[in-house]
Design brief:
CATH topology: outer membrane lipoprotein receptor (LolB), chain A
Radius of gyration: 20 Å
CATH architecture: Clam
CATH superfamily: Lipoprotein localisation LolA/LolB/LppX
Structural class: alpha+beta
Helix content: 10-25%
CATH class: Mainly Beta
Order of helices and strands: HEEEEEEEEEEEE
Number of helices: 1
Strand order of the largest sheet: 7-8-9-10-11-1-2-3-4-5-6-12
Length: about 210
């Protein structure tokens, strides 16, 4: 019995240290992200679900400045000016405009893609991978909410730059979403109107104002 107790205490100690190390690393990432005036990321987006015969891969890019963002993904453009989100769909010549609260913890937005993990997860260190000479430390995040659609998230962090390199979302329905960063640029010269929606550019589009 004594040996079992000692073993359990040892495992608990190791788990606690892993969680502390993971939190320390994530805190470094958050601090680094917040030190930049803006971030421009190009990435590969892949979604896979063998059971549903779903396998798709595409590329996208996002520009982040504070809580504002411009996202290009899967043929659509999203502009968030800090108050309203504008989803532009060229294929349908349609634009959907709605309000979006950045204070809503349940709202997962591109502006939170580098800091979403700060609340609502437990975490621990996972494997380290060598990617073209870069050491990528993975952290496993598990949602605290037992009703979450997410099973777990693996966050790959470049140990040298403290930038996020890869994010793998594993959902309970068997769907895996992987985002791999191809380029990560910071403090870029941006147009003052980059996050401003100009309705005059879309004269032929149907504009759907949802609120």
């Amino acid at each position: 019995m004594t040996k079992k107790i000692i073993f359990l205490l040892f495992v608990l100690g190791v788990t606690t240290i892993q969680a502390q190390n993971a939190k320390s690393l994530l805190d470094e990432v958050s601090s680094k992200v917040r030190s930049y005036s803006n971030i421009v990321i190009s990435f590969k987006y892949a979604i896979n679900n063998p059971a549903e015969n779903v396998s798709q891969e595409t590329r996208g890019d996002v520009t982040l400045q504070g809580n504002k963002y411009l996202l290009n993904l899967m043929g659509t453009k999203q502009i968030y000016d800090g108050k309203k989100i504008h989803i532009i769909i060229p294929e349908d010549e349609e634009i959907n405009i709605s309000s979006q609260s950045e204070d809503d913890d349940a709202s997962v937005t591109p502006s939170k893609m580098l800091t979403f993990y700060e609340d609502g997860y437990t975490y621990k260190m996972d494997i380290v991978q060598n990617v073209n000479g870069r050491k990528i430390q993975y952290v496993k995040l598990i949602p605290i909410d037992s009703k979450s659609d997410l099973k777990e998230i693996l966050l790959g962090i470049d140990k040298q730059t403290k930038h996020i390199y890869k994010m793998i979302q594993k959902q309970n329905n068997g769907t895996n979403v992987t985002i791999t960063v191809n380029s990560f640029k910071t403090n870029q010269p941006l147009s003052k109107t980059l996050f401003v929606f100009d309705e005059s550019k879309y004269g032929n589009y149907y504009i759907n104002r949802l609120d």
